[in-house]
Amino acid sequence: MAAGVPTGFGIASTSLFWALITVLPASAAALAGTVVVEGVRLRRTRYRVLADRLELTKGVLVRTRRSVSRDRIRTVDLTAGPPARLFGIVTVKIDTGEQGGSGASSVSLYAVARGEGERLRAELLDRGRGDGRPATGGRLATFDPRWVRYAPLSIVTPALGAAAYGGVLQVAEWFGLQSGVIRWAIDLLGGLGLVGGVAVVAVVGVVIGVLGSLALFVEMWWNFRLDREAGGTVRVRRGLLTVRSISLEEQRLRGVELVEPLGVRTAGAARVDAVATGLRSQGDEDKGDRKTLLPAAPRGEADRVAAAVLREAAGPTSAELTRHPIAARGRRIRRALAAAAAPVAVLAGCWWLFSSPVLLHLTWIGAVAGVPIALALAVDAYRNLGHGLSGDYLVARHGSVRRSTVALQRRGVIGLTARQSLFQRRRGLMTITATTAAGSGAYSVHDADAAEGLAFADEAVPGLFGPLFERG
User: Which residue among 257, 289, 307, 310 has its CA within the 20 to 30 Å range from the CA of 396?
Assistant: First the structure.
């Protein structure tokens, strides 16, 4: 093994040398060409803001002219990475929130001066308020460094650890050293046994994931500020290296959603997302980040911010909710046990076919560990079920691994659906779904008592279920 190490490094050095002398010149030429093309493209780009529309003309060989009605504009976001911040420029993304693909719902202006970007944002979103509320501004929330402790509790942590191992193997594959790296790791951990080696790999992966999640959280949310502006917009500003500014018109807001992943909820924290129209454009990779009004923060702070955003004295997300029937717990327990039994059955079948001791151990370990976890999650999911009315808001809560509490404006509900499966009818349960033009488009009250569910729906939005009550 020791004799093979110099040979391996010699081969790797030769491969690296030829890679550098071939890749670097090509990369430099591609970079120079990109700079020239982008410079010409930016010089050929023109835009203007008129009283009723925004006009944009761009293109070098093929000229494109677009006209966007100002009444259709939903959000105006500003983004500046480290190079852009150095030169004092931003990217302005103007989104209409429509469902057209291929970027048809948004207009992006690149390399705009920061002052000009701020002016465009204020001008395009300040169309006056039509709800009679005072157009006052103020700070709603500010970043607290103590919130960083919630970052490692998300699902991102194990994902980053696994990605780190995958990245190492991928880089080793580029230089033809993947099998050597794997053999080196096996030799290094061989003295610890199977259980010890797996434990070391898992611990190192967790440490890498924790460090990565901390760095990612700081990069995304450092210097976070949530403001209400006098023009009738809610503005989120955040970012350490890449600074982002996301603006949302209050008149587009239909409610808020309190999101509590299991790890974050265990630490008593929650995230606040906006339920708003104009945030559902296709092909938007930052949709999840754009709707977040508050990152993972203490639950009390999340409820306070939710109430402040909705201009309510008390947050509807903290309202007392109606519990669901005990039959709903049975449904969750049966589903959880079925989900836990499926992989155990597959492993048992493989063991029966191949008679491998490893598969036998995996089978009983999966059964012993999977069933209690499944039962605990099922009972927790039942306890989290609830629905109610809080002033002008319909409130629904569900979920265990990801508990969600949504407060939806009753006037924003455009339809109600009552659904009963065969098994729900036998147990007197019903799922009520409120359809809206905002957020995910539909929010459900799962497995409520049938009579209570219909009465709740009729009280939340009177008249929609009138024909059903008449037939009953």
Answer: 289
For 388, the 3-state DSSP assignment is strand
Specify the 3-state DSSP secondary structure of 453: helix
Q: Tens of pLDDT along 389-432? A: 998 999 999 999 999 999 999 999 999 999 999 999 999 999 99
Strand partners, 235: 227, 247
Let me know: does 65 contact 46? Beta carbons within 8 Å.
Answer: no
Share of the chain above pLDDT 90, in %: 44
Structural tokens at position 307: 């109430």
158 within 8 A of 210, measured Cβ to Cβ: no
Token readout for 34 is 């990109």
- DSSP states along 104-128: TTEEEEEEEEHHHHHHHHHHHH---
Taking Cα atoms as reference points, which of 382, 442, 383, 455 lies closest to residue 408?
Answer: 442
pLDDT at 443 exceeding the cut of 70 = yes
DSSP state of 222: T
Alpha-helix residue ranges (DSSP H) falling in 100-250: 114-125, 156-174, 178-189, 193-221
Q: Tell me the sheet residues that pair with 64.
A: 58
